[in-house]
Amino acid sequence: MNRYLLFLLLLAYSWTSTANMASPNIYGTFHSSLIFPQKCTVTQEKIRADIIKNSDKDFYYEYIIRLKVTYHITSPTKQEMPLLFMASNYLNDQQIYVNGQAIPSSPIDKEQDYPFLIKEEITDTLQYTNAPTRYHAYTKYYISYDGKEKQEVEPSNLIYFTAPLKTGENMIEVSYGAFPSTRRYGFLPPYTFEYSIYPSKFWKTFPEIDIEIHFPKELKFEQSSMEAEEYTVSDHLFQGKIKDFHSTPEHYWRFSPKPSWLGSVVLAIGPLGFGIILFLGAVGLHLYCIKKKKKWGLWLGVFLTPLLFYVGFLGAYPFIDWVLGKKSLQGYVFLIVLTYPIFFIFYGIFTFICYHFRKSKDF
Q: Are 63 and 2 in contact (CB under 8 A)?
């Protein structure tokens, strides 16, 4: 009998975790280091990110990342150098300064030729039974500065500009606003900021990259791709250094909303826990009625006891939202009610076994 109950509870949990048919993620920004040839030497890179509240209440991105990346570059000669970096889901408010001079940026024109952009025309043959052969043509785009190694990119994610470099030390500053990635469903979904250092494979040297992320007091640092000894977190400030390209070329930093102590308690219990608590309380009351030989309690409990699990489970969602002070999206969790007939049958069998055992043993 205990195995039956365990099976039903696991079945209920599986419904809540798999009944969501929409995309679970809201994709945010993805950034990369500057991409340029090996004619120059990067002596320093510093990333500063400020996570701030989005003032636009109607927008589903609750936070904005204000990103500022500074590069110190040594050039052997005075030259005009084409540079670019990758960024997705940004606010199109980028500002670029080279040695204090504002430099305009340009989107990539797919019809134009660039020294770093490789185009590959692809034609796929589509064949179906009893249907004429069809052809699908499209273009793939790659970036490469050394002519050997290349990486596939989306032209819309490339920001291109020409930097007037002087002989010796130069400073390039890139800043813009963007959105973090998050999850669409669940209580207090985390926010993730991603940054790729893959383009540094094209660099002549790889300096240590300083990371500085300021986050508001209502958020807490949760996880990073960096090793624990590479960073510190205190007073809502993440500070660290990426020292080795080969450790991982893709980095991320994850922050999550910080609940109150009561919010932490209800999150630990969860909807499944509230459903189980209400169900076990109803089981105890039902067994008491059986022991007292109340036949009306026997029949009524068979219907109501399983139902109270669903009341506790579904009612927990608005209750937890109320405690956290934030409305959440939960997908198709209501579909769990479709398991009620199965729950009802197994609980009915359990109840009548207990009832007949009570009559025969008089416990």
A: no
CB contact at 8 A, 344 and 304: no
Query: Which residues on neighbouring strands pair with residue 255, listed in sequence order?
Result: 191, 221
Give the pLDDT confidence score for residue 208 in this predicted structure: 81
Q: Which long-range contacts (CB under 8 A, 24 or more apart) does 15-21 make?
A: 15/333, 15/335, 15/336, 15/338, 15/339, 16/271, 16/272, 16/313, 16/333, 16/336, 19/331, 19/332, 19/333, 19/335, 19/336, 20/185, 20/330, 20/331, 20/332, 20/333, 21/331, 21/332
For residue 202, name the pLDDT band (cuts at 50, 70, 90).
low
SS3 content of the chain, % helix, strand, coil (to 5): 35, 35, 30
What type of residue is 110? K
Do residues 15 and 336 touch, judged by C-beta distance below 8 A? yes
Q: Residue 173 — very low, low, confident or very high, per pLDDT cuts 50/70/90? A: very high
**Size of the chain, expressed as the number of residues it contains:** 363
How many angstroms separate the Cα of 267 from the Cα of each of 35, 54, 187, 328? 44, 25, 8, 13
Q: What is the pLDDT of residues 149-164, one digit of tens each?
A: 777 777 877 778 888 8
Residue 262 in tokens: 């009561």
Pairing of strands 106-107, 95-98: unpaired
Contact 46, 210 (CB under 8 A): yes
- Indicate if the pLDDT at residue 362 is higher than 80: no
- Write down the mean pLDDT value for the chain: 76
For 35, which DSSP code?
B
Radius of gyration of the chain (CA): 29
DSSP string, 146-215: SSS--EEE-GGGEEEEEEEEPSEEEEEEEEEEE--EEESSSSS--EEEEEE-GGGGGSS----EEEEEE-
Return all residues near 359 (Cβ < 8 A) that are at least 6 apart: none
H-helix or E-strand spanning residue 117: strand 117-126
Q: What is the pTM of this model?
A: 0.71
- Range from 13-17, 70-74, 267-271 carrying the lowest mean pLDDT: 13-17
CA 41 to chain centre: 34
